[in-house]
Amino acid sequence: MLKELPECWYVVCTKQNQKTLSKWRWPNLENHLLPITHITGMYKWSEKVIKTEHNRIRDCGNWGIKISFDDFKRLVLKETPENYTFLIDKLNELNIR
After folding, report:
1. What backbone phi and psi angles, to 5 degrees, belong to 86?
2. Are 63 and 45 in contact (CB under 8 A)?
3. CA-CA distance, 44 to 29, in Å (whole number)?
4. Global confidence as pTM
5. Which of 7, 52, 9 is nearest to 34 (CA)?
6. CA distance 23 to 45
7. Who's near 32: CB < 8 A, 6+ residues apart?
8. Which of 6, 33, 45, 77 has the most CB within a 10 Å radius?
9. Residue ranges per structural domain of the chain
10. Helix (H, G, I), strand (E, B) or coil at 36
11. Residue 59's pLDDT is what?
12. What is the pLDDT of residue 43?
């Protein structure tokens, strides 16, 4: 579980997350779908240009690190996670039993 997003990151598109990722990638295009197995995230084009992008996974360049879809929902979409097992890690980290 990430505490914060890195500067550059990506998520792999699956059948389960395709609609959510497509809506984030193209907020004004209702029926446009990111192809399954492609990636989307924040891509570094140059020192000063980092922007939302998508591509085939084998064409990775300056994508940074892969993040989980749960981290995407929590850190990018600001959604409350459906799975609260991340709290176990946090409690252990704080040494709370």
Report:
1. -60, -25
2. no
3. 23
4. 0.76
5. 52
6. 22
7. 22, 26
8. 33
9. 9-93
10. coil
11. 61
12. 85
Strand, helix or coil for residue 51: strand
Element (H, E) at 63: none
Paired tokens of 89: 């890690």
C-alpha distance from residue 92 to each of 13, 15, 62, 81, 95 (Å): 31, 33, 34, 19, 5
DSSP 6-56: -SSEEEE--TTTHHHHHHHH-TT-TT--PPTTEEEEEEE-SSS-EEEEEEE
Amino acid in the structure at residue 12: V
Asked if 24 contacts 40 with a C-beta cutoff of 8 angstroms, the reply is yes
Tens of pLDDT, residues 6-49 = 988 999 999 999 999 999 999 999 889 999 999 999 888 777 77
The pairing of beta strand 9-12 with beta strand 65-66: parallel
